[in-house]
Automatic annotation (TrEMBL):
Designated name of the protein: 7-methylxanthosine synthase 1-like
InterPro entries: MeTrfase_7, SAM-dependent_MTases_sf
One GO MF term: methyltransferase activity
SUPFAM superfamilies: S-adenosyl-L-methionine-dependent methyltransferases (SSF53335)
Amino acid sequence: MTMERLLCMKGGMGETSYAKNSILQRKAIMKVKTLLDENLLKLMMLKKTSNGCWKIADLGCSSGPNTLISISNIMEIIHKSSLKLNHKKLVFQIYLNDLFENDFNNIFKLLPDFHQSMQGENFGACYMNATPGSFYGRLFPNYYIDIFHSSYCVHWLSQVSKCTHS
């Protein structure tokens, strides 16, 4: 059995599932929202997407409602910042990444409510994708993703990426 199969979260919505036992992770996600707000505004001032499409990857998204909290926080911050900066209507391309054994179907069941909550004046389209695989290997082409997010999986990395800037 590979390490990826041993380390995956328990799917579904049962009493012992990750979705029912991830309150600590939810609290951490909410605590970093202020940091996200500050840093995403800086990023938006530096980078302008040529087509108004922001590509966001959530590495180690797991399964359950916490997955979409992080993404909705990022989307709301970018949306509010784009209004401040008078950017055109944005489109979001979201890539949810986790190991192959992740219960992506559990996430997909939450998408209708997520899309409903993200609608609003000048709020652009949102396209969701599952990107199963280990982030130890290549998941995306070079320079493809605008924002990488990870709440609780970076500690699994054994070394810092060569392209990371201090």
